[in-house]
Specification:
Blueprint (H helix, E strand, L loop, with lengths): L3 E5 L4 H12 L3 E5 L9 H11 L3 E4 L6 H6 L1 H22 L3 E6 L22 H16 L3 E6 L2 E2 L11 H11 L2 E4 L4 E2 L2 E2 H13 L5 E4 L6 E2 H12 L4 E4 L20 H5 L8 H9 L1
Parallel strand pairs: 1-2, 1-3, 3-4, 4-5, 5-10, 6-9, 7-12
Antiparallel strand pairs: 8-11
Helix pairs in contact: 1-7, 2-4, 4-5, 8-10
């Protein structure tokens, strides 16, 4: 049976793939962008969502750029915290289930084995803190919600805040440089947005319990190992070296080992996420 799905942030890196996945499934998708709705303005949000009469609201809207969040924590909290609170209030009022996209940056990366959904979050930076505040607002206000924590995402559409994703950046640098240096001390699970989008469709097709879910590819790697696999799959011969410790250090603390386990999905036999290498292969094809 066809559903009416509202996607907020429909022109973004993940939002565009979510729209496509639900359309391919036969659902009716209403994509909303920043010009259509402002999540920091609860009246704007209420008026738009009340009018569309959606069966599910999926929000990818956020202030994503980690450096910008650090520079302007007030704005980051307004978008990632208060914006999420507004979504929770309006969706509860209208009885819409809410799917909210969050991040692995709610963790400090000190755990050497994959994080599961019941692990205590300890954010290291403003972005992680404001995203966690959004999660807390949703958990305490919304009646029907899924919070999906994702990691290292890349997709066909550019991220509105960051521009090119890591894969495209590596391919561009390979055209411009004789050698490339990439950090080897940050471990994560790079995840193709097409796979996340298909997982969300499968989640709604099942009978899942509401709550917090990890939605990442299987496996783990460093950014250096990810770059090496990109060049291997594309047949690019480039001198690739691990960066020295602190070579690309910025002003933002980042978790060093942020690998998530999709335990909640697996416990309900709903996990369809493939290995990160398979996701990369699909993206490059």
């Amino acid at each position: 049976m066809s559903r009416k799905i509202c996607v907020i942030g429909a022109n973004g890196q993940l939002g565009s793939d979510i729209c496509q996945s639900f359309e391919l499934h036969g659902d009716r998708v209403l994509g909303l962008n920043h010009d259509d709705v402002e999540i920091t303005d609860i009246e704007s949000l209420r008026n738009v969502l009340k009018e569309i009469k959606s069966q599910v609201v999926i929000s990818t809207a956020a202030m994503h750029h980690v450096g910008n969040c650090e520079d302007d924590p007030r704005k980051a909290f307004l978008v990632n915290g208060i914006g999420s609170r507004n979504l929770a209030l309006v969706c509860r009022e209208l009885q819409y289930p809410l799917i909210h996209i969050s991040t692995d940056y709610v963790f400090d990366g000190k755990k050497k084995v994959p994080y599961i959904e019941t692990d205590r979050p300890v954010p290291l930076n403003v972005y992680g803190n404001t995203k966690l505040s959004g999660e807390c607002f949703i958990e305490s206000i919304a009646e029907k919600f899924f919070i999906l924590q994702v990691s290292g995402i890349y997709g066909k559409n550019p991220c509105r805040a960051k521009g090119s994703n890591f894969v495209q950046t590596m391919l561009r640098l390979a055209r411009e440089k004789d050698e490339i240096r990439v950090v080897d001390d940050e471990i994560l699970t790079p995840t193709f947005t097409g796979d996340i989008s298909n997982q969300i469709v499968e989640l709604l097709n099942g009978e899942p319990e509401y709550g917090l879910y990890h939605v990442t590819a299987e496996g783990r790697c460093s950014w250096f190992e990810f770059a090496a696999e990109i060049f291997s799959m594309t047949g690019i011969d480039i001198a690739l070296y691990p960066a020295d410790p602190g070579e690309f250090a910025g002003n933002v603390l980042r978790p060093k080992h942020c690998v998530l386990e999709n335990k909640h999905l697996k416990d309900q036999n709903l996990n369809v996420m493939s290995h990160w290498k398979e996701g990369l292969k699909k993206y490059l094809s």
